[in-house]
Design a protein that fits this description.
With 265 residues, the protein is α/β, with parallel strands linked by helices. It is built from ten helices and seven strands. The protein has a single domain, classed as 3-Layer(aba) Sandwich (Rossmann fold), CATH 3.40.50. Strands 3-2-1-4-5-7-6 form a seven-stranded mixed sheet, with helices on both faces. Helix 9 links the parallel strand 4 and strand 5. Helix 3 crosses helix 6, helix 3 packs across helix 7 and helix 4 crosses helix 6.
């Protein structure tokens, strides 16, 4: 299980998606192009990997945890998790903090924010409201050291999914692509901030998986079953799965929804 909560995380289907990693032969590197909480990465614990995401705060947190888990844990122990503290920490200018302090702040806000959303305002400031203690406790030192060990042989990259994946992918690699949903006429809550995956990026995603395939690498795309994904799925194998949506504020609206796994395996 990942140490971060993340809207859209595929932790419900980790067992299913991980089968594709093992089916690929697991001889190359594991590459995740929209890493988010990197739930599949931590579930598999691959020996060599690359985590790509356009969120600089997320990638800094991963990088610092990789190098200094005990320092991050010590800072996390200062927090209690009550509502007043949450808004005080959220209002703190991260530019005034050290990398270790920013990483602890990121983990803390992620743990106690509403539904694991990552959303920013026009100035780039995190603005998700308090979600309470029902999301569990902050990870302790032993857990952060465990995650740090898994990250030890991982290259952490901040950048565009298309550009960076195309730069790194080689024959034998396994690439997992789990982009935010970019569906026409849908309310997406902008949970991933100003660099959110949009409708125009579907064409780039389509081109990217062709490049991955041409280089002798393997890919799995997970995406909502919808008209917009048809252009990706027609040339590849498709496997339907169901996931429970967790973004809706009302538990009654968090229903199972159809999703497609699209792959060249």
């Amino acid at each position: 299980m990942a140490f971060l909560r993340w809207a859209g995380s595929k932790k419900q289907i980790l067992g299913t998606v991980s089968q594709a990693w093992y089916a690929s032969g697991a001889t190359g590197r594991y590459i995740e192009s929209f890493s988010g909480s990197a739930a599949l990465f931590f579930y598999i614990s691959p020996p060599k990997s690359i985590l790509i995401d356009c969120n600089p705060h997320l990638q800094e947190c991963m990088s610092v945890l990789k190098r200094r888990p005990i320092a991050v844990s010590t800072l996390l122990q200062r927090y209690s998790g009550d509502e007043a503290e949450y808004y005080k920490v959220r209002s703190t200018d991260p530019c005034l903090l050290s990398p270790e302090e920013r990483s602890a702040r990121f983990i803390y806000l992620n743990r106690f924010c509403f539904n694991g959303l990552y959303r920013t305002n026009s100035k780039g400031w995190f603005n998700v409201p308090y979600g309470g203690h029902k999301s569990g406790e902050l990870p302790n030192a032993d857990k952060l050291k465990y995650y740090s060990d898994i990250l030890r042989n991982t290259t952490i990259v901040c950048g565009d999914f298309y550009t960076q994946t195309k730069k790194y992918v080689e024959s034998g690699d396994f690439v997992y692509l789990d982009p935010p949903y970019a569906k026409t006429n849908a309310s997406l809550d902008f949970q991933y901030g100003p660099n959110e995956f949009g409708m125009n990026d579907l064409d780039r995603l389509n081109e990217l998986i062709k490049i991955i395939h041409s280089r002798g690498a393997y890919f799995v795309v997970s995406y909502a079953k919808c008209e917009e994904i048809e252009m990706l799925s027609e040339d590849w194998y498709q496997y339907p799965v169901e996931v429970r949506r967790t973004i809706a504020a009302s538990p009654q609206k968090r229903q199972a929804a159809p999703e497609l796994l699209i792959t060249n395996l």
